[in-house]
Amino acid sequence: MQISTSKLTYSQIRTISEKFLKDYHPSLSIPIPIEEIVELKLKVKISTTPNLKSEFDIDGFINSEFSEITLDDEMFNKFEERARFTISHEIGHGVLHSKIYKNCKIQSKEDYLKFQQSLTDENQKWLEIQAHIFAACVLVPTEKLKEEIKKAVGKQHPQAEFSIPYLQSLPEKFKVSTDVIYRRIQKEKLLAEY
User: Fold this and answer.
1) Which residues are in the IrrE N-terminal-like domain (predicted)?
2) Beta bridge partners of 48
3) For 69, how many CA atoms within 13 A lie in the half-sphere containing its CB?
4) Which one, out of 36, 92, 142, 146, has a CA that is 20 to 30 A from the CA of 192?
5) Can you point out the beta strands (E) in 37-147?
6) Secondary element (H or E) of residue 87
7) 47: which strand partners?
8) Using CB atoms within 10 A of its CB, is residue 138 exposed (0-12), middle (13-18) or buried (19+)?
9) pLDDT for position 156
């Protein structure tokens, strides 16, 4: 399939994610209630199916009408942080790649697999990277991350050297993986401020 993937920058995707949050969760209270936003505000159904990951190596996918996100049943039930990230990631495809998805007629896991197989490696890479960035920026908004880092740094003894262990509470507060927190800190260059 010949598609044109816009190569959005990190900054552009962060701006789009900030607008998304302004529209759907302006309070920015954490953890971001992504399931509530998706189901109640966007009216997108979240469903699960068994063995999506084990048989097809798929955590989840969104259909072409942006009316349903299908997740791997085991992941959804056992790994809250991963499920939240996958939901946000799939909404990222809806926000960032709506023209591409609308033309692909994705209704099932088989349709989704055909769509993935039809992409060039480079196009697939860009679509996934962009949706990952969107998901991370939505679940860990920059301003909230800065606030939480300041709180963590403030708990240290004034003479103590700043260290990563003070940030160990952040994944739980945002309900994301440690990896997501560290990548957001790194991309925003937040440790350089302390």
Assistant:
1) 80-185
2) 71
3) 25
4) 92
5) 45-49, 60-62, 68-72
6) helix 80-96
7) 70
8) buried
9) 52
